[in-house]
Each structure stands twice: as structure tokens, then as C-alpha cells.
Amino acid sequence: MRNATKQTILKLLARSANGQTTLQIAHDLNLSRSATSLYLNQLAQQNLVLKQDTYPIIWQINGAKQSTLTDAFQKFIGVQGSCHKMIEQCKAAISYPPTGLPILIHGNSGVGKTFLAHLTFEYLHQQHAKCAAKLVVFNCADYANNPELLSSALFGYRKGAFTGATQNKTGLLTQANGGMLFLDEVHRLSFANQEKLFRFMDTGEFQVVGASDQVTTAQVRLIFATTEDPSKVLLPTFLRRIVTILELTDYHQRPLAEREALLRELIRKEGARLHKNIQVDEAVFQQLLHQQLAGNIGELKNQVQILCAQALQSQQSQSQLIIGDPQHQGINIMPQQVSQPPSGFNQALQQKLQQQLQQVTAVKTLQDLLWHFAESHFTALNLDRTYTWRSLQQIITDNTQKIMGDAQLVQPFLQTLMIYVMDFSNCFNKKLMQRFRWQIQLNTPRLVLFTQKITIQIPKEYQKLLRFLLQIFLQGQIVEDLPYQALLVAHGNSTASSIQAVANQLCHAYLFDAIDMPINSDLQEVILKVKNWLAERDTAKGVIMLVDMGSLTQLYKSLKPEIQGELLVINNLTTSFALEIGQHLLNHHRFIDITENAKRLFQTKIQYFEGFSDKQNIIIASILGFDIAQKLQQILQPLIYPDLKIIVMNFKDLTELLQHARQEPDYLKNTKLILTTSYLEKKTTVPTFNLLDITDEEGDLTALNYKLQQIINPKNLSEFINRCISFFSKKGLSEKLNFLNPEIIIKQVESIIEKCERRFSINLNNKTKFNLMIHLALMVERTILDSPAYPVPVALEQLQVNGLNFYTNVKDILHFIENFYHITISDWELYILYEIIIG
């Protein structure tokens, strides 16, 4: 009885990386504290457990003695998790009488194939199985280029069998007789040797090289390993005789908890080797944890050793080795710790919970059960707070705080939740969660959306269970009877979400969702994001949106078809406005009342804009770039009438502005003239003028003078024209360049223009050539400076010039300049080039 109790204590400690106190062990095993203390001290005297001089005392398994407690496969990380089924298959195959079934271990380099083979032999040895006397290991790659030599190594040879065979030599099968033979890289066996080997697998017989008249027998368990696809490198007849194929996944594909355990074990082994505790900076630990390595665990081991070697150079005399920044939060790993990920520490508790879960059919009953079970059994637990545990908890806390302003909504049950996830996950199978899924979705749709938001960054292996348990524990905590959906939209990294957090916190409810848009997002991108948000929600009662900018007309027209109910868009997003709307939602006010109140409170914000600008203005935009428009402003500013305002904008913004103006005729009523360096496709009531017309010797000077006299005093007109001619000349181009050599780039762009004319069989006028020259030169500078590119409104691959594919040909023409400056020209720049060429 005492020995059985001690074994139970050892098994309990073996599954706790950070150890447990006497009281915790006594509680888990239903023992008295004094009896537990007695057993623990006896185990310590036997050097099976370690006693830490802390208060209270912490007991840990002695890592060096752990292998004597359970079967050898307990050392294989994942044996209770993702690899459980595989290990059970391995046990069954290798134990099959009389000498096991052949096993093939398949996986990429560094995943642990050799380690698994050695554990398999160790397991056989522990079980006192037949043919477990010795392990012979051979890598077939060593003789891959000499099949005959490989055959002699495998089967042995007789004296005189070939030149150099001066004496008899036993082969690997004979050496492994009564034991196990592990052939690594078995795909390097020739087909002839595979045929010889599968004969042995069938009969237990083989022929020694040079002894064809004599049959030799042996009893050997066989394990093979390969990095290649077995169906492509092994004979079908050979492969058919391998009943069990074990698949080992890459390091980055293993569950997060197992990756953590693998990493901890590698660090622990280095600590044992150096006789030091090791502290790893959490940032370094996280980087190692999430790497995708070609060499998998083997390469990870090398990285850990390099980090330890680098740290050891400056910390030889220290008892603890610190990897990374000592000021950062670190993860402490002691040589004696066990690195197996947390698993069900108490099988009886798991079975008890599973039995109770089978009887539950209602969500509220399930919530009560989980609370009661936790209160009854979790109070004295001190489960391992691993990095995985803490990182999952941090994600939920941070995301809840981002939406609600604080994490009070989840804090009361977060520890309990994590215990269920990390130690009782097997109790919540797919069938159980499916039983409650439709109840939860039907009755608490807002809760479902909320839990999806706060678990969006959770690793997939934990995501479903975490969402399910959050939906159970948060029952009744999320307002479901809101009259309308509410959304905040703003440009900036966190503008909308910051207001969302404050408004939800002060209203003490999850009322608002938020969409943060990048600063350079256009209206169509905003509309697309909002449409995706609407698709996930019931909009039958209505939707209220607070936005920071954008045309109300376009927003309304674009979004209204997506909404079953009413839509109110308020073009002003502030915390006070959000709080005002929040109170209306909580008070269940009618939609029409909210609208009327909004008109009264936000009168200047929800009415349509009466115009683009309240002052008489000129708009300047250039397809050649914003900097060109700014320089044109500098030329024009001292020459125009003083009551006029110059507005400079990106060419893309101008096209959107004109689209808006077509829907609101008076939108540009104060704009006197639009100046560009290209012709506009979109028609407008505002006069427009392409400044490159000034360089056209055959241009209509009368029309030119008439348009310019609307903004420039006639006495300044000739000066303006002369400045523009100079600006658009080669000399002017040289002055526009910031760092490129004008002589070189001008020759290069002239060559490009000439090639374009030849390739597309076109003749460009001087004005278009000027435009192209400026665009191409500045395009190279912009690309070198990594200036932002805009989305292209058309499919470039479909554009044609004179029946020729534009994209393919122009990429070919520009190839030399991309190589010369080591750049890649964006599709946006190519699109502008196309627009200039076609005029």
C-alpha cells in the first residue's frame, strides 16, 4: 500500500514542472498532511524527489530518476497530446509477438525520428520483451553510392566473396539477432537490397554475401526511418510489409504547449550540462517558440546551444545563466525540471467531469456545473503557469481591455477557464460542443461575436475550446437585446477602438464595435470593411454609424442595400457623441427619436456638406506626383488674385473628389479652376486646364488666356507662362530632381520613351514626351525612397496600347532601369505611365 501511494505521488509530481506543496499533494490524493509529508521525505531520501528550501516547501520530481517511474515513451513530448495515438500504435506494433511488426518513422530532418527509435528500444527493454537485448543502429546513407558494399554490411559476407574480403564478416542482421535493428535513411537502400530485406521480413531468413548455398536466420525487430515520401522511394512490395508508418510533424506544426515543452527540455538539458539554472528573456523565448525551422528540433537545439555559449562567455562565475536582457521578464528553467507539457494530473477528476457533462443539456446548467466543479476541486491546485498559459491569458485580457476599457468582464473566471483548457481539454470533445452550439448562436449572437473578437490571435489548437468556454462563462454578461447595431469608424491605428473602449466602459456594456482604418485608406476600402462587419450581424432593426470623415451620400448609398433596417450615419466621431448614442441604445429609444436628437445635437455634423471649401479656390493636382503639384503652387501663389486660396491634393484624391461632385452639383461651387498636368476623364462643371498645354506651340492661346485670366492678373500672365515653360523643360526637370544625376536619368528616360514609341508603334507629341520625361525621372526617385503606392483601379494585365499588352511590354522596357537602380516599380506607377501614354 505504501509503495503504491509513493508511486502515485511520483506520478503526480512528474506532471508538474514547477512542483507542488505538501498541502496540494495531500488534497489531490485525499491523504493527511502528516502522512503525505512522511512519504515525501522517504522519497527524498531515495533521491527520487527534490525538496526546495522555500516556504511553503516545494516538492519536485528528480529529473534524473524520472525514467524509472513510467514507460520510456513518457520522455517523448506530446505522448499525452498530439502524439498519443502514434505512440500507442508504436507500442502495439513493436510488442506484437513474436518479434514485433516492422515500423517506418517518416518525417523531415530534425523532427526526432532517431530519438523515437531509441525510446522504442528502451520501452522494449523495460517490458523485458523478447528481442530487446541490444540495439544496432545503421545509416544507409553511409554506403548509398555502393549498393554491393551496403548489401555486405547488412547481410555480412564470407571470406573471398569479393576482392578485399580477406575474412568472414557478420552483417547487421546477425549483430542485431535477439535485439532491434534501426535503419535510418532507409530510402538510400537500392531496390535489390530492399528485395533481400523484405524476404527476411517474411521468413526471418537471409543469405550472407558469398554463401548463396547457405541460409542464415535471425530474430530481429526492425525500425526504419526516412525523410522522403515512402511511396516514391520504396518498392511497393517492400512498403506493403511495413504495417505501421509513424508520421512525425515539423516543429512549427506541433501544438503550442508541446513546442514550449520541447524548448524547455532543450534548455533544461543545457542547464544540466553546465550545472546552472537558466533564465531566458521572454522575448527570446517567444522568438524561439514561433520559428519555422528547416532543421526542426535539431536546428532549434543548435540555436539554444549557441545562445547558452554566448551567455556563458560573460557569466562563467554566475550560478544562473541569463539569456537575453536581464531587465526583461524571464522564464526560469532548472536542470531538474520536467519539460513534458501539462496533462490531466488527476484521471479520476477528468472521468468525473466527463460523466457529469454527459448529463447536461442546457447552457445555464452547464455554466452552473463548471462553476461548482471548479469551486469543489480547483481551490487547492497550483497548476503550472507555463508560458503558453500566460500568453493565452494575456491575449484574452488585452483584447477584452481594448473593447471594454478594462478586463473586469473576464477576470473573475479567467484562472478557472485556463485550468479547464490546459488540464481538462479532453473532457470537451467536438460532440459536446456541437450539442450547445446552436443554443448559444441562437440566444446569444452578440456574445458569440464578442468571444470571436477577443480570441482572434489565439492559436488554432486552443481557439475553439476557449471560445466555447468563454461563451459559457460569459452567459448573461453581454447585452443581447440592443435595439440597434452600433459601429465607430475612424482613420488611425487606434482612434475608433480607443473611443469604443471608453464608451463601452462608461456605459458598462458592450455596445459599440470599432473599425480602425489606415490613414491612407480611401472611401471604398472603408465601405468594404463596413460591409464585412454588417454581414456578421442582424441589421433588421437598424444600424447607427459614427464616422470621422467621408461623404455621407456615398456611405449611405453604398451601405443601405446591405442593411435590412434603417441606417443613420453621423459624420463626427467623438467620445461625447458615442456616449450620447450609447445612452439612447441602453434606454431603447426609437430610431426616429435618436435621429431627431442627433440632428439637434450634431446639427453641423450630420447635414450634407454644402461645398468643398467656403472660400474661392483653385485646385492643383498632378498625375506626376504630389511634389510637382506643390512646386506648381509655389510658382502660382505670388501671381494669383489675393482672395483666392490654392488647394493642393494627390491626383487620386482629385478623381474621387470629382466623383463626389457629380453626386452633389454644388460641391465645387467655390472652385474657380482645376489645374493639372494631364487631361481629366471625369467631366465637371468647373473649368479645368492642363498646364502642359502651355508648352504646345500649336495650342489655342485665346482659350488659354481666358481660363488663366480667371485667376491671374493679366499683367502677370506672361510671367506665369514663362515660368511654366521653364519648369517643364529639361532644365526645369534637373531642378526637380533631389539626388539623381540629371544627365544620366534624362538620357535613360529619353531611351525609355523612344523604346515605347517603337514597341507600341506610336508617335508621341512634345507635350506627352515632356509629361513622360518628368514622370519617369521622378518615378525612379519616388521608388528609391519607397514612397507609398496606391491601389490600381483596373487590371493592368488587360490594358493594351495599339493592340499590344501594355503590362508585359512596359515591364520589359523598364527592366534595365530597375536593374540599374535596384528597384521594383509599383503597379500604381505603371498605371500612371499608361494614362500618360494614351493621353
UniProtKB/TrEMBL annotation:
<dbReference type="InterPro" id="IPR036390">
    <property type="entry name" value="WH_DNA-bd_sf"/>
</dbReference>
<dbReference type="Pfam" id="PF00158">
    <property type="entry name" value="Sigma54_activat"/>
</dbReference>
<feature type="domain" description="PRD">
    <location>
        <begin position="740"/>
        <end position="839"/>
    </location>
</feature>
<dbReference type="InterPro" id="IPR036634">
    <property type="entry name" value="PRD_sf"/>
</dbReference>
<dbReference type="GO" id="GO:0016020">
    <property type="term" value="C:membrane"/>
</dbReference>
<dbReference type="GO" id="GO:0003677">
    <property type="term" value="F:DNA binding"/>
</dbReference>
<dbReference type="Pfam" id="PF00874">
    <property type="entry name" value="PRD"/>
</dbReference>
<dbReference type="GO" id="GO:0006355">
    <property type="term" value="P:regulation of DNA-templated transcription"/>
</dbReference>
<dbReference type="GO" id="GO:0016740">
    <property type="term" value="F:transferase activity"/>
</dbReference>
<protein>
    <recommendedName>
        <fullName>DNA translocase FtsK</fullName>
    </recommendedName>
</protein>
<dbReference type="InterPro" id="IPR025943">
    <property type="entry name" value="Sigma_54_int_dom_ATP-bd_2"/>
</dbReference>
<keyword id="KW-0067">ATP-binding</keyword>
<dbReference type="InterPro" id="IPR027417">
    <property type="entry name" value="P-loop_NTPase"/>
</dbReference>
<dbReference type="InterPro" id="IPR004701">
    <property type="entry name" value="PTS_EIIA_man-typ"/>
</dbReference>
<feature type="domain" description="Sigma-54 factor interaction">
    <location>
        <begin position="76"/>
        <end position="309"/>
    </location>
</feature>
<dbReference type="InterPro" id="IPR036388">
    <property type="entry name" value="WH-like_DNA-bd_sf"/>
</dbReference>
<dbReference type="InterPro" id="IPR036662">
    <property type="entry name" value="PTS_EIIA_man-typ_sf"/>
</dbReference>
<dbReference type="GO" id="GO:0009401">
    <property type="term" value="P:phosphoenolpyruvate-dependent sugar phosphotransferase system"/>
</dbReference>
<keyword id="KW-0547">Nucleotide-binding</keyword>
<dbReference type="InterPro" id="IPR011608">
    <property type="entry name" value="PRD"/>
</dbReference>
<dbReference type="GO" id="GO:0005524">
    <property type="term" value="F:ATP binding"/>
</dbReference>
<keyword id="KW-0808">Transferase</keyword>
<dbReference type="InterPro" id="IPR002078">
    <property type="entry name" value="Sigma_54_int"/>
</dbReference>
<dbReference type="Pfam" id="PF03610">
    <property type="entry name" value="EIIA-man"/>
</dbReference>
<dbReference type="InterPro" id="IPR003593">
    <property type="entry name" value="AAA+_ATPase"/>
</dbReference>
<feature type="domain" description="PTS EIIA type-4">
    <location>
        <begin position="483"/>
        <end position="606"/>
    </location>
</feature>
<keyword id="KW-0238">DNA-binding</keyword>
